[in-house]
Design a protein that fits this description.
Strand content: 15-25%
Distance between the termini: 33 Å
Strand order of the largest sheet: 7-6-5-8-9-11-10
Number of helices: 10
CATH topology of the largest domain: Rossmann fold
CATH architecture of the largest domain: 3-Layer(aba) Sandwich
Order of helices and strands: EHEHEHEHEHEHEHEHEEEHEH
Largest sheet: 7 strands, mixed
Structural class: alpha/beta
CATH class of the largest domain: Alpha Beta
Number of strands: 12
């Protein structure tokens, strides 16, 4: 029986031990780990994966792109894709810094409590990799998204990139530079998801508890203090104000299940490409 081989491409000096453990726990027979991978070095690694097996055996080799630098990982993913020759290719997955699995798990969790289509959602700290993907996935399911940053320029740039990639127009950039501005922004929000920098409180508990239309609040910051006041890292559908709350570990179970299922699906064929939307579809199927 042909062994399943996963090639892990990581931009960091040492490939992620987290991603390696998940790969092994997902049933990979052999894991080949490469660190400090640059776009200029991608082609020979990809060709080595492509040309050593043929026909149906190609589906037993796949490539995972990770690392802490999401922008570089996106470039590595594109370089991998460009190295293929028609049907001679292997399946690809990108989840640098957990960006796609984390965002997918958060949006699925929100959808358990309110239909996303037409829902008013606020993504706090939305200009980072996870915030952008959360905004993209919410908008794709019909939510009215407000993406926030301390800088309107950064928020606008993030929205333009999302709209350019997905064609979704229901994303509005907003600058938030004061407690009053945050409270005004959240006054009619049904969903609020905090995606800001670790250890920075974006909104306090008192403000959250005054949100009269809140259905679900999710804080993806695992480092104290919480990004959304009143949420503990382990909270999972815990009552908060008029809604429920999830912490980073609270959505972590679904994130892990999604990561493993996505890796396993790579070996179903040799032409899978798993980025934000494809990984989101897997998370929704898991529920």
């Amino acid at each position: 029986m042909t062994k399943r081989i996963l090639i892990q491409l990581d931009s960091d000096p040492q490939p992620s031990s987290f991603d390696s453990v998940v790969a092994i726990d997902s049933g990979v027979d052999h894991l080949l780990r490469y660190g400090q991978v640059l776009v200029s070095g991608v082609v020979p690694l990809v060709h080595g994966a492509m040309f050593t097996r043929g026909g149906d055996e190609l589906r037993n080799t796949a490539i995972f792109v990770g690392g802490s630098n999401v922008e570089l990982a996106e470039n590595l993913l594109a370089a991998c894709r460009d190295a293929f020759f028609g049907p001679v290719r292997v399946s690809l997955m990108m989840d640098a810094n957990g960006c796609n699995t984390t965002a997918s798990a958060a949006v699925v969790a929100a959808g358990r409590h309110i239909p996303l289509s037409g829902a008013k959602a606020v993504v706090l700290g939305g200009t980072g990799p996870v915030g952008r993907r959360v905004s993209q996935l919410l908008a794709a399911d019909g939510a009215e998204v407000r993406l926030t940053s301390r800088s309107l320029e950064r928020a606008s740039h993030a929205c333009e990139q999302i709209i350019g990639k997905s064609g979704q127009a229901s994303i509005q950039p907003l600058a938030v530079d004061s407690t009053h501005a945050v409270e005004t922004l959240l006054s009619d929000a049904q969903i609020v998801i905090g995606c800001g920098a670790a250890g920075v409180e974006l909104v306090d508990q008192e403000t959250v508890e005054r949100m009269s239309r809140l259905e679900v609040a999710i804080d993806l910051n695992a480092v104290p203090p919480a990004g959304i006041g009143g949420i503990e890292v382990t909270d999972k559908a815990k009552p908060l104000g008029t809604g429920v709350a999830y912490g980073a570990i609270g959505v972590g179970g679904l994130k892990m299940k999604t990561h493993k299922a996505a890796l396993q699906s790579l070996f179903e064929s040799n032409d899978r490409l798993l980025d934000a939307e494809e990984i989101y579809a897997i998370a929704k199927a898991i529920g």
